[in-house]
Amino acid sequence: MALTLLFLLNVGLLCSGAASPPNFVLLFADDLGFGDLGCYGHPTSLTPNLDRLAAGGLRFTDFYCTSPVCSPSRASLLTGRYQTRSGIYPGVLYPGSIGGLPLNETTIAEVLKPQGYATAAMGKWHLGFGANGMFLPTNQGFDQYLGIPYSHDMGPCWNLTCFPPDVKCFGLCDVGTVAVPLMYNKVIKEQPVNFLTLEKAYSDFATDFITTSAQKKQPFFLYYPSHHTHYPQYAGAAAAGKSLRGPYGDALLEFDNTIGNLLTTLEKTGVINNTLIFFTSDNGPELMRMSRGGIAGPLKCGKGTTYEGGMREPAIAYWPGVIRRGVTHEIASTLDILPTIANLAGAKLPEVMLDGADMTDILLNQGKSKKETMMFYPTDPSEMYSMFALRLGKYKAHFYTRGATHSGTTPDKDCPVFAVLKAHDPPLLFDLETDPSENYPISATQRPDLQELLKQIQKVKEQFEATMVFGESQISKGTDVNLEPCCNPQCSPKPSCCHC
Ligand SMILES: *[C@@H]1O[C@H](CO)[C@@H](O)[C@H](O)[C@H]1NC(C)=O
Ligand SMILES: *[C@@H]1O[C@H](CO)[C@@H](O)[C@H](O)[C@H]1NC(C)=O
Ligand SMILES: *[C@@H]1O[C@H](CO)[C@@H](O)[C@H](O)[C@H]1NC(C)=O
């Protein structure tokens, strides 16, 4: 009761004070693990601005993404729905993919447009390109877009410069496709992209967008899915060689510098106190890159797996004067961001089955989560296998476990691809409060008191599955080389002639 009152009071203040609804800045890191930030315990990462957000805002310990790989995780973030509904499975989209996030899905940007928001996206889209760029952000509610429409390793990189003065990118990246483009809206500005000036381009774009919106007194939504810290790491002069953590640390520092620039712009334009900044990551660390990948801290395995290391992410909410500093252990996820933003902006929810819950009460009042469950789908979900794991309160039940290529190279033999699919009946059960590392399965057969819990888990699973309608797989529609973005469309031979 007291909580509810406080909650109403807060929202009342928000709505009655400045006429302007809040601005939203959504920061999304790439392949950054639970243990990669200074404020989550990494000893040598240099992230002064993220640490500042964490110190002055709310830091989550139990925040999840919905998929251990990029495209599906992004689909859920922007729609508030599991990727199985929108069809962003199995795996990820490619430069020549025929499919993409269906245009009839409603993104956060589309939720905010009717409220008069200016909307912009910059960075890694990875929700499709398609014929004539039909799946680009400007067709999904964003007024403007600057960025690489997919992963920056999805094109040959062995001859590209990743660090100044001319340190070549590590590895080959994906050969056989066009060089990675930088796009403004639907126009290719550079092909290949210049990694040394890319972050500055983003920073300038964001400064311009925020300044223009603030001058017009227009509420805004900036979505910045960064390429950092995905392989191959890169950084311009301001960050290269400046961290103790090598290429990975420098890439992370470059992202952090941009966050610092964003904060400065929000302060200078006078809108910082009316802006919710939310930071999280798309999936766990790519452990196969060894010291060039991230780390999951105390969590098990990483990218590609449904263990905690693949799915649990750092998350920070910052809003000076509105969100009190603290740490929350409530269960929340990227699915909750759309309903939360909709509530705070006074916007209508899309009339579809949403999986997220409004977490305003967690943010504003350090209240309780409206949901006690989280479903863990593998990279290749199917109706036959359904979810691989389910979290209910402090317990996590694995119905299937499997390692992944992306999680190779650590000593844990459950993580690499050699750990083949294994079914667990009864499910492999962990108490994540006492054992966040999923090291010590609870033997339910020796614990009669847990029989009721197992029944409850089964019931929650079945109830959820009854609501799950798999959307047509967009990724199974395949690829067409002619769809790959090319700055010189009539040239030959492709893909190598797509250089401008
Ligand atoms: C989008 O359209 C497809 C094809 O008609 C349909 O199956 C799907 O349910 C629609 N999705 C939404 C969110 O309306
Ligand atoms: C690599 O870059 C150099 C200098 O820009 C160029 O001369 C060379 O042809 C490039 N090699 C390949 C394989 O693209
Ligand atoms: C934001 O609020 C703080 C605390 O009330 C105040 O000191 C600061 O000047 C405000 N900043 C802006 C840009 O309005």
Automatic annotation (TrEMBL):
Keywords for the protein's UniProt record, in alphabetical order: Calcium, Glycoprotein, Hydrolase, Metal-binding, Signal
An example Gene Ontology molecular-function term: arylsulfatase activity
Cofactor (UniProt): Ca(2+)
Signal peptide annotation: 1-19
Stored Gene3D superfamilies: 3.30.1120.10, Alkaline Phosphatase, subunit A
All residue ranges annotated as the Sulfatase N-terminal domain in the record: 22-347
InterPro entries on file: Alkaline_phosphatase_core_sf, Sulfatase, Sulfatase_CS, Sulfatase_N
Pfam families for this protein: Sulfatase, Sulfatase_C
Keyword Glycoprotein included in the entry's annotation: yes
PROSITE patterns registered for this protein in UniProt: SULFATASE_1
Family listed: Belongs to the sulfatase family.
Protein name from the UniProt record: Sulfatase N-terminal domain-containing protein
Gene of this entry: arsa
